[in-house]
Amino acid sequence: MSGDLISREPIAMEEGAELLRFSTCGSVDDGKSTLIGRLLYDTKSIFEDQLQHVEDVSRRRGDEYTNLALLTDGLRAEREQGITIDVAYRYFATPRRKFIIADTPGHIQYTRNMVTGASTANLAIVLVDARKGLVEQSRRHSFIASLLRIPHIVFAVNKMDLVGWDEGVFRKIEAEFRNFASKLDVQDIAFIPVSALHGDNVVTRSENMPWYQGAPLLHHLETVHIASDRNMIDVRFPVQWVIRPQSAEHPDYRGYAGVVSGGILKPGDEVVALPSGFTSRIKKIETFDGPVDEAFSPMSVIVHLEDELDVSRGDMLCRPSNKPVVGQDLDAMVCWMADQPLTPKSRLALKHTTRWVRAMVTNISYKLDVNTLHRNESVPSLGLNDIGRIQLRTTAPLFYDEYRRNRTTGSFVLVDESTNATVAAGMLLSEPR
Amino acid sequence: MISYQLGHLKALEAEAVHILREMAAERERPVLLFSGGKDSIVLLRLAEKAFRPARFPFPIMHVDTGHNFPEAIEFRDRRVKELGERLIVASVEESIAKGRVVEEKGPRASRNRLQTTTLLDAIEEHQFDAAIGGARRDEERARAKERIFSHRDEFGQWDPKNQRPELWNLYNTRLRKGEHFRVFPISNWTELDVWAYIREEKLEIPSIYYSHEREVFERDGMLYSRAHFTELLPGERFFREIVRFRTVGDMSCTGAVRSGARTIEEVIEEVAASRVTERGATRADDRFTEAAMEDRKKEGYF
């Protein structure tokens, strides 16, 4: 990995280039960090001082190659142990798109950090070692990606150099995974044979694998269609903050600030405020830069209504004919993230959109075996990194959608009120039981 | 046809505005840290986007080492006045006078490290429970690991191995008494994004970001500005050079780069073509050890 001097080229970003957030996952030693290093290196996104640093440290440690993993393993403990503990975020851009990488750990004990990285991703790259094929962690990670409704998954079959660039090996892994994936809820899956170490099919097409007709990884990342992954149908506007200046200049100003979480808002639209149920019309949609004709996800805007309603943080605006589910009995998939197990009767704080409520676990339906997707219905509790289906009762109603319909209005977190630790990621299912 | 796509800068802006409003709604006593540097200049604009036409629901605070660039201080005062907001200055000079910290001696002395105590003292004095900062994950590898709502214990310490999972945009803003958050709305921005945003929003920045002639001296391969406290080492001398700064920090540890960039366009061109990171190029404080930033952050450094 030495040789050519890196020169960062001026980045000529297209006007309005899209942002793609992706996470990388895979088992330990499958080469995630090397792949990211390769992407950054070949897109000329590594600076000389960073590379110099990595080269110095690699040499000092006696590594055979420049260890690109050192670019992303930023904590002392990670470097000592040579493993990734927490999510690292990395950035690069091509003229077509701007990328945010969440480099997530492969170790099973850090699954919660993987879920952290995956929760905001448009796409997940699951790395598989060509010599090993599908292992537990590859199944686990693809299942989590599907559970978190990451719309696009790329299976990067890595270390093809170590299996003689053999198409048979690649096809076997592909078939094995397609079989597993048929049980998952994923729309878009791509398979790409790569060598992260040597750069084959990462940024440029590999000459070692002429049998592969598809695009290299970067090209796929640049072109995968993400525009229709958001919900543009169901209008959802959780009120985040009420803007009411106490000034002579704006005596009657009352604007509802927040992020459009679904659908398209327009002035003149009839809206209903939950939980009050009062209806009004949108008078104006405003930003610091002036009024806008339309607002859509994920814009942060200020909505003004025709009538003076009592609307505050935690309320939600939507269309009268298209309301979310309103209820206190929730049915959800959760990933449990605390050492203390989750048991029925646990009382927790719950954050959903812009509201906090208290919740009690009323039942644990089952725990999932992420390898076989088998449901174990006779578990008394969920332990650290377990994924299961639970029921909750909240102190006040939530206005929510099924997670598969809207990742914003369908997600929540649970917080232990005695420690303030975030203990679970939750995804709501359609109908309360 | 409308594509209903936000360009990447607009998407980053929307995310930052959401973070600022979330913090304002859920914390009682936030404060926005402003140094006069480019990242915190962007933060002030984002706060306008989040809260105007109302006043900011927090004061602005500068941790003044007493060794800041005069141009940055002048800019700081003018900008805060234009915004009509309240400025608190926490002074390292005062911390030294009070005996809270001991000033380093000799030609290599820097007040950068002393800022930590001054910042933590100010947070305690004003009982702030959230300090909004302009740090970015692309700056440094320890920063790349940090959450947007970064939890600090009652000693102001960051525990990198025990961070709260940060899921979707559902920030867990809960604290115990005495603890606080460092909140980083522009975590996901790169240096180039910041410059592009400054161009897009036509934001004014301190003059030292643009090319100018200055009296400097060279040390360890970096160009430092002559200041009233400068002590030269044997063999060093002052000379005049055409330079600009990529970061605005304490004068004792912020290096200049040779540059002829006089406009925002030229600055962006230069940054885009640069082969070294802004910290690698201009910050001496990150060079002490392999994990210098992580170690300082654990102590409570910004």
UniProtKB/TrEMBL annotation, chain A:
PROSITE patterns on file: G_TR_1, G_TR_2
Keyword annotations of the record: ATP-binding, GTP-binding, Nucleotide-binding, Nucleotidyltransferase, Transferase
InterPro entries assigned to the protein according to its UniProt record, in alphabetical order: CysN_GTP-bd (IPR041757), CysN_II (IPR044138), CysN_NoDQ_III (IPR044139), G_TR_CS (IPR031157), GTP-eEF1A_C (IPR054696), P-loop_NTPase (IPR027417), Small_GTP-bd (IPR005225), SO4_adenylTrfase_lsu (IPR011779)
Biological process according to GO: hydrogen sulfide biosynthetic process; sulfate assimilation
Single GO MF annotation: GTP binding
PANTHER family associated with the record: TRANSLATION FACTOR
Function: With CysD forms the ATP sulfurylase (ATPS) that catalyzes the adenylation of sulfate producing adenosine 5'-phosphosulfate (APS) and diphosphate, the first enzymatic step in sulfur assimilation pathway. APS synthesis involves the formation of a high-energy phosphoric-sulfuric acid anhydride bond driven by GTP hydrolysis by CysN coupled to ATP hydrolysis by CysD.
Listed name of the protein: Sulfate adenylyltransferase subunit 1
TrEMBL record, chain B:
SUPFAM superfamilies tied to this protein: Adenine nucleotide alpha hydrolases-like
Stretches of the chain forming a coiled coil according to its record: none
GO molecular function: ATP binding; sulfate adenylyltransferase (ATP) activity
Matches recorded under InterPro entries: PAPS_reduct_dom, Rossmann-like_a/b/a_fold, SO4_adenylTrfase_ssu, Sulfate_adenylyltrnsfr_sub2
EC code: 2.7.7.4
Keywords for the protein's UniProt record, in alphabetical order: ATP-binding, Nucleotide-binding, Nucleotidyltransferase, Transferase
Top-tier EC class: transferase
UniProt domain Phosphoadenosine phosphosulphate reductase: residue ranges: 30-255
One example of a Gene Ontology biological process annotation: sulfate assimilation
Matches recorded under PANTHER family: SULFATE ADENYLYLTRANSFERASE SUBUNIT 2
Family, as annotated: Belongs to the PAPS reductase family. CysD subfamily.
Protein name per its UniProtKB record: Sulfate adenylyltransferase subunit 2
Biological source species: Sandaracinus amylolyticus
